[in-house]
Automatic annotation (TrEMBL), chain A:
<feature type="transmembrane region" description="Helical">
    <location>
        <begin position="21"/>
        <end position="42"/>
    </location>
</feature>
<feature type="transmembrane region" description="Helical">
    <location>
        <begin position="178"/>
        <end position="196"/>
    </location>
</feature>
<dbReference type="Pfam" id="PF00174">
    <property type="entry name" value="Oxidored_molyb"/>
</dbReference>
<feature type="transmembrane region" description="Helical">
    <location>
        <begin position="104"/>
        <end position="123"/>
    </location>
</feature>
<feature type="transmembrane region" description="Helical">
    <location>
        <begin position="62"/>
        <end position="83"/>
    </location>
</feature>
<dbReference type="InterPro" id="IPR036374">
    <property type="entry name" value="OxRdtase_Mopterin-bd_sf"/>
</dbReference>
<feature type="domain" description="Oxidoreductase molybdopterin-binding">
    <location>
        <begin position="226"/>
        <end position="358"/>
    </location>
</feature>
<keyword id="KW-0812">Transmembrane</keyword>
<feature type="transmembrane region" description="Helical">
    <location>
        <begin position="135"/>
        <end position="157"/>
    </location>
</feature>
Automatic annotation (TrEMBL), chain B:
<keyword id="KW-0472">Membrane</keyword>
<feature type="transmembrane region" description="Helical">
    <location>
        <begin position="111"/>
        <end position="131"/>
    </location>
</feature>
<keyword id="KW-0812">Transmembrane</keyword>
<feature type="transmembrane region" description="Helical">
    <location>
        <begin position="72"/>
        <end position="91"/>
    </location>
</feature>
<protein>
    <recommendedName>
        <fullName>Transmembrane protein</fullName>
    </recommendedName>
</protein>
<keyword id="KW-1133">Transmembrane helix</keyword>
<feature type="transmembrane region" description="Helical">
    <location>
        <begin position="36"/>
        <end position="60"/>
    </location>
</feature>
Amino acid sequence: MSKPVIRFQSPAHDERVSSRIGIWLAVAFGVCFVTGLISHGIQHSWFWWPSRPVHLYHLTQGLHVTSGVAAIPLLLAKLWSVYPKLFERPLVRSVPHALERGSILVLSGAVFFETVTGVFNVAQNYLWGFYFPTAHYAVAWVAVGSILVHVAVKLPVVRRGLARPVDGSRRRFLRTTWLASGVAVLATAGGTVAFLRPVSPLSTRSDRGPQGVAVNRTARAAGIVVPEDWRLEVWAPSGIRRFTRAELAALPQTTARLPIACVEGWSATADWTGVPVADLLRLVGVAPGAAVRVESLEPTGLYRASTLPGPHTADPDTLLALRINGEDLAPDHGYPCRIIAPNRPGVLQTKWVSRLEVR
Amino acid sequence: MRTVLAVAGLAALAWGGYLLAEFALASTRDAWHAGLWFLGGPIAHDAVIAPVVGAAGLVIATRLPTHWRTPVATGAAATGVLVLLAVPLLWHPLGVPENPGLHDRDYPLGLMIALCLVWAAVVAAGLVAGYRRRRT
């Protein structure tokens, strides 16, 4: 045993502490990874995704961001617990030891990358030049892979650590860690849990959006100009049908209470009124359940179009909405009309719709 | 069990590495930016955050009366976490898109109120612990 560089005395530097925090960190990152994968899969049409329950995506994305936030204090406490290992000398003892140390650098780099870019992205504070979803997704695999390898390497230590009870000062360190994690969740969860909004000082979502609902892209930012002779075009195998807004408003209307749930973890529920997409399909002789491509007036932009899959066009609550909370849609909410469907990522709830195209 | 975890982990690492290579080859600038963000975390933690935590812990453990140590350490941890989480909302040198209803709350005020509550709880816990200690 060589002489330590610094004498660490905190009772937190102990495998009983590291293993207990490690387990909760693995749970938090596990939830974060799975819910992130679900969202990625829906947006890339990897699997069949139902239109019910209405709030399922709201729940998975709320969990994604909340578990990521909860992981931050856990991560810092875990790293503090094992910090003296950074100063172990000799730096490298053998090839396996070098690989293990290297893998910890990859693990730490990946989880910091995910949590830090994650919270900055939630704040829409884009300090980087790259496209966030691609990088966040790729590094997520690196993070989860290095966590699994780390657990495989450390499993005997974890078992040993858990088998021994914690004493007073270590129990206090653990309690402080759980409390800090709880504070982090409470401070931010108002973005997705409506009743926490008044007590969540760092919630990204307020109630100051037009008509009480937050806006993720304004009409001005999207460069929307609604032409005087705007018509909704519905392209079907039988031909193209056009509807004025007055004609749409004259059709039987449905009102549904649905959330907009963003991949960035905020959500807002409203009463939407409009024409069920299923009814529009029937008017052009198509059975509900066919996939429909939705195009926006937005001239450019990554999310100017979306495809409503079969389960959603068949759902009677999937609306071409004209009104929100009893008023005509504000321009920022997609006037003249927008798609609102149950259990869908917010970026796919296309606004300023110009055309529906049966696939 | 360990073998299964290791094999699954290596497979995920390989897939992540492939995705990252694809990402990096598409743009040198993006690769450079992402690389800085990847290494920035461990460096900032090991060189700044952990030493600050250690120094704070040392002061708390050596300078404070026994019954104040746990409340103050817990308050300091909560403060650190709240401040770190507030950074992206308070500091945005490149600006943020103007989206009504999103990131438009009074964050400095909210953070101040939260910190006041945390430290009020710290003071209350410290006083209760001191009272209990004197009684026994």
